[in-house]
Amino acid sequence: MADPADADRTITPALAWEGAADFTDIRYETAAAFPDGDGGGRIAKITIARPEVRNAFRPKTVEEMIEAFTLAREDPEVGVVVLAGEGPLAFCSGGDQRARGDSGYVGDDAVGQKGVGRFLVTDLHVQIRRLPKPVVAMVAGYAVGGGHVLHVCCDLTIAADNATFGQTGPKVGSFDGGFGASVLARQVGQKRAKEIWFLCRQYDAAKALDWGLVNEVVALEELEEETVRWCQDMMRLSPFALRLLKAGFHAEEDGLAGIQQLAHDTNLLFYGSEEAQEGRDAFKEKRRPEFERFPKRP
Ligand code: S0N
């Protein structure tokens, strides 16, 4: 149970967030990364805003998150994305059990699938892993069930001192044998990942830090300030280098899809070269490409 005293604690806002789209279940906001002008670019923040159910997600929530991550991806000003939950008590408590039908989660308005159970969250996990920008989970309170999986899928996790982590699947007749098991095992090791899933215990922030499940633990009040500091550090670095590093980390873990991402990122770089442009230009000008102009690099 959440500590009632936590309900009165406030996470200090660190940036002047501006609403950038209208959603029902989430908020999508962006802010200048360096309000003092000592740098450029923006940070995006996606907040699950259903505190009455500890930020559990229903199909509509997941649809909106997918849309918000797409907005963040497509915005050339945005360099880093923060994923958070509304309020001090929960990051996310996983799938909304009230929306769970007999064969998946059921939405009234889930992209033309009215009444048909599905697992939209699969697409969200893949999207976070493939997003070519770092995604930081900012965890206050509970990150449990599918909410725990969400932070596992994020690249970095900054936790508040009241953060509580755990999987609940086998308690409620559910499980995530996808990234929720495999990526978790890469992060904490097989024995600990199996413990988390097989025993369904809850772990405090200190234990999570000790296990390498999170990157940093700070006072709840300072959670956003610390998260933004981490984002600012990344915003000062080469965005393409970060993109390639993320693809590199995931290349082997995500199998052929991971290799494909890394390979296509090299396409993107190669297209910017004179050598690649010579091939394009020669085709358009109906002449033999003069590739002999380019070095055969050792
Ligand atoms: C989070 C917990 C520990 C908080 O306890 P606390 O502080 O005592 O608060 P409560 O009184 O329990 O909760 C407050 C109100 O919120 C409602 N609520 C909480 N969680 C949910 C939820 N998940 N769904 C619906 N409602 C929720 C409470 O009912 C209460 O409401 P009122 O006041 O009206 O009574 C504690 O709440 C808790 O343990 N919650 C449940 C955690 C859980 O089991 N989550 C579901 C786990 N399963 C999934 O997430 C599905 C995973 C999935 O979809 C999936 C499947 C395959 C592959 C991938 C995934 C994936 O999602 O990743």
Automatic annotation (TrEMBL):
Location of region: Disordered: 276-298
Function: Converts o-succinylbenzoyl-CoA (OSB-CoA) to 1,4-dihydroxy-2-naphthoyl-CoA (DHNA-CoA).
Record-linked NCBIfam families: menB (TIGR01929), PRK07396.1 (NF005637)
Binding site for hydrogencarbonate: Q167, T168, G169
Biased composition annotated in UniProt, kind: Basic and acidic residues: 277-298
BP-aspect Gene Ontology terms: menaquinone biosynthetic process
Pfam families referenced in this protein's UniProt entry, alphabetically: ECH_1
Substrates-to-products reaction catalysed: 2-succinylbenzoyl-CoA + H(+) = 1,4-dihydroxy-2-naphthoyl-CoA + H2O
UniProt pathway: Quinol/quinone metabolism; menaquinone biosynthesis; Quinol/quinone metabolism; 1,4-dihydroxy-2-naphthoate biosynthesis; 1,4-dihydroxy-2-naphthoate from chorismate: step 6/7
Residues the record marks as site: Important for catalysis: Y105, Y271
Entry annotated with the keyword Lyase: yes
Keywords on record: Lyase, Menaquinone biosynthesis
Taxonomic source organism: Iamia majanohamensis
Gene assigned in the entry: menB
Cofactor(s) required, per the database record: hydrogencarbonate
Family: Belongs to the enoyl-CoA hydratase/isomerase family. MenB subfamily.
Cross-referenced SUPFAM superfamilies: ClpP/crotonase
EC class (word): lyase
GO molecular function: 1,4-dihydroxy-2-naphthoyl-CoA synthase activity
Residues the entry annotates as binding substrate: 54, 93-97, 105, 142-146, 168, 174, 271, 286
Name assigned to this protein: 1,4-dihydroxy-2-naphthoyl-CoA synthase
